[in-house]
Structure formats: C-alpha cells, structure tokens
Amino acid sequence: MFYVNKKEARLIILQRIELCSNILKKIRKLFGRHFFSNFITKFFLNSKTIGKSYYNRMHEEFKTFEKYIDHNDKNVLSIGGGMGGLEVILNNNSEVNFFDFIERNFVSKKVVYGWSSNNSEAYNNLNLQSEFLVKNGLSKIKFKIFDFDNDVLPSKKFDTVISLYSLDYHYDFDLYVEYLKKNTHNESKIIFDTVRPDFFKSIFKEVIILDETIKRVHSSKRLICKNFLN
Ligand SMILES: C[S@@+](CC[C@H](N)C(=O)[O-])C[C@H]1O[C@@H](n2cnc3c(N)ncnc32)[C@H](O)[C@@H]1O
Question: Which residues are near ligand 1 (CB < 6 Å)?
Fold first, then answer.
C-alpha cells in the first residue's frame, strides 16, 4: 500500500474518481461536482483505504506495459502523472535513473472530467506530490517536478514518456507534440490513453495497442508509440 495523508487522498480521488466508494459516488451524483470536490473529498475520505486501492490500481496499470520496459529505459518523463504512484511502482521494478514530472499546481473548482479543448482542468498540488513520492520510496535525488504553467520544461532525450488518462485523453496531443519531438529519440516509447488510436498511425512509425478501457470517463485505448514520422 501507499502512505497517503488526507490532502493527498483528496487529490488521488479527484485524479482517479473510480477509486471512490459507491456511497461517495452517489453523493457526488446527488449533490454535484462542486460540493463533492470542495467539501466531501476534504472531510469524508479514508486515507488508509485510498492508499491501498491506489496502490493496487497503479500496480494493475503498471502490468499493462511492464513487458515493454527494459534495461535501456533510464530517463522517464511523466506527463500528468497525478500523485505519481505509478512511477513509484515503475521505479521499484526497473533500472530507471531519473523521473521528470510535468504536472499542474492547482485544483479546478468544479473538476469536470472529459475532453477540454483549452486544457483548463487540473487537480494536483506539486508540494504534496513531492512529499508523496519521497515517503513512498522515490528518493529526492531521483526526480524533479515541473509546473506546466510556470516552469521551463525539461530538455533531454527521454527513453520513456508516460501519460495515463491525461495527454490526448483530457486535452489534445498537439499541446505536447513539438516538445516530444525535440525530447525523444527513435527508440523512445510514448505511452498514453486516447479515444482516436488510428490517428496516431499518421504521426508515428510504430503504434502498438496495449489495452482497451470501455467507458471509464470515455472509452479509450492505451498505446505505445515510437518514432515520429516527421
Ligand atoms: C485524470 S488525471 C490522471 C492522473 C494519473 N496519470 C493517473 O493515471 O492516476 C489527469 C492529470 O493530468 C494533469 N494535467 C492536466 N493538464 C495537464 C498538462 N497540460 N500537463 C501536465 N499535466 C496535466 C492533471 O492535473 C491530473 O493530475
């Protein structure tokens, strides 16, 4: 399980609404997203239970791409990794040297899931993310977190880029396309969830479909893409 305090549990639930108990899901439906995000999640969550279920879910997610990770994967970029539980698990099961995280440092008032053409939705706090990573075993010297809205983004050739339910799930791949072209090499793996897998055959030389999710927020496919066509 992960060690999680109340504030982190709240963010995990906003990032992974499926981890919410059925009763809380009903309350959310009944009283609305604003009340749920700004009141219920602040006072009525069991952080121990969420620490367990978040760990189990991130472990399942890791399994979906585990066989593609090898000893050459040293530099990982996480785009919209939320609290970063997946990267902790990846760190425990690989030879990765360094994790760069690009995330955002605010929580939307209403938290609306779905496609946002202006990328206005976010639910994270970068200090809490950093504390979470360290207390769950990712050494401080092994990662850096970048604020998408305020920082100069990291510049290096990443071996693996991971963005579950973020890039091209909530906002357009286009937002990062030039950045990713500059900061990957021909063998880099870009792993993300999308509703339009076929589109990526026109962007990458290699596209592998890993997994299919039927109706989470919307139905999507998880891809590993390699080698930009141009
Ligand atoms: C649905 S959550 C998924 C979190 C995590 N990947 C997971 O699977 O648990 C989407 C995440 O994307 C982040 N996000 C939104 N816009 C972003 C952007 N432009 N760059 C990086 N992260 C972003 C949000 O703050 C949020 O943590």
Answer: 15-16, 79-82, 102-104, 119, 122-124, 148, 164-166, 170-171
Domains of the chain (ranges, CATH numbers) = 69-228 (3.40.50.150)
Please give the single-letter amino acid code of residue 119.
N
* Structure token pair of residue 96: 């990765």
Contact 228, 181 (CB under 8 A): yes
Ligand 1 centroid – CA 143 distance (Å): 17
For residue 5, name the pLDDT band (cuts at 50, 70, 90): very high
What pLDDT score was predicted for residue 162? 98
Closest atom of ligand 1 to 123 CA is 25
pLDDT at site 217 = 63
Alpha-carbon torsion angle 6, 60, 85, 144, nearest 10: -160
pLDDT at 53: 96
User: Is pTM, for the whole model, over 0.90?
Assistant: yes
- Between β-strands 158-163 and 184-194, what pairing exists: parallel, antiparallel or unpaired? parallel
